[in-house]
Amino acid sequence: MISVGLAACNRSFTIYDFEDTQQKFTDSYTEQDEGIEEEILPYRTELEASMNKMIVVARGDILKAQPSSPLGNLLADATREMASTYISEDINIGIMNYGGIRVPSISKGNVSIGNVYEVMPFDNYLVVMRLKGSKLKEVFDAIAGGGGWPVSGVSFTIKNGKASQVMINGAALELEKEYSVAISDYLANGGDHLNMLKGLEQTNTNVLLRDAFMDYFRRVHEYGDELQVNDEIRISNE
């Protein structure tokens, strides 16, 4: 319990007294309030039913690993494809950060809405950036320094902690060429050591990355297909 006294003068505040005490927690704090429990039960039941709803089937266990992995390939491809759908424009590259994927795998069998929330619990938005090849090289060097992240439309080798032999959709990276990149707003704003992107122009799709994954998974299911285990090596260590 904290007691704080404040005195106001010319819209400024000064703390003139501070007191703290410790309150011991007992088993009584864990007892349920039956009235509250009755109120929230219908909402909990509805939420659980929604979270358990199947949206697609995975053909096999889709694993996460570095520098390249089936789960990373899947999510980077989804990032790129859905960004293209949302803004009605072909997107050259998709990028996910490895730490942003919060599960070690998507298990074989039914994939539910709740599973997607486990994969991506953060409220990050899917955005599109247009970057020159020289700026992308900085991004890829940062990705290489981080041990390799999920990418789509990109392949390179990690050599001495840098990106080497960078290819964009089968062609060598051109430093003066502009490329379109699907990425999260967290990364676009400089998160996870991508400071070189901070302050650069971005187009927000206004779709959460998690919702983009769900849209992609539903699309796969509606086409009568399953999530595949794509073990293509897009980033490798020399």
Q: Which key terms come to mind for this protein?
A:
6 helices, alpha+beta, 238 residues, 5'-nucleotidase,  domain 2, globular
Supply the number of structural domains: 1
Helix content: 25-40%
Radius of gyration: 23 Å
CATH architecture, please?
Answer: Alpha-Beta Complex
Q: Largest beta sheet: what is the strand line-up?
A: 9-5-13-8-14
Cα-to-Cα separation, first versus last residue: 57 Å
Question: Structural class given helices, strands, pairing?
Answer: alpha+beta
Describe this structure in words.
By secondary structure, this protein is an alpha+beta fold. The protein has one domain (62-237): Alpha-Beta Complex (5'-nucleotidase,  domain 2). It contains 6 helices and 15 strands. The chain has a 5-stranded mixed beta sheet. A 4-stranded mixed beta sheet has the order 12-11-10-15. Helix 2 (70-87) crosses helix 6. The chain is globular and about 65 Å long.
Summarize the structure.
The strands form five sheets. A five-stranded mixed β-sheet has the order 9-5-13-8-14. The chain has a four-stranded mixed β-sheet with strand order 12-11-10-15. It has a two-stranded antiparallel ribbon with strand order 1-2. It is built from six helices and 15 strands. With 238 residues, the chain is an alpha+beta fold.
Layout of secondary structure:
Layout: E1 2-9, E2 12-20, H1 34-51, E3 54-58, E4 62-63, H2 70-87, E5 93-95, E6 105-106, E7 109-112, H3 113-119, E8 125-132, H4 133-145, E9 151-152, E10 154-159, E11 162-168, E12 171-172, E13 178-184, H5 185-188, E14 203-208, H6 209-222, E15 235-237
Parallel strand pairs: 5-13, 10-15
Antiparallel strand pairs: 1-2, 3-7, 4-6, 5-9, 8-13, 8-14, 10-11, 11-12
Helix pairs in contact: 2-6
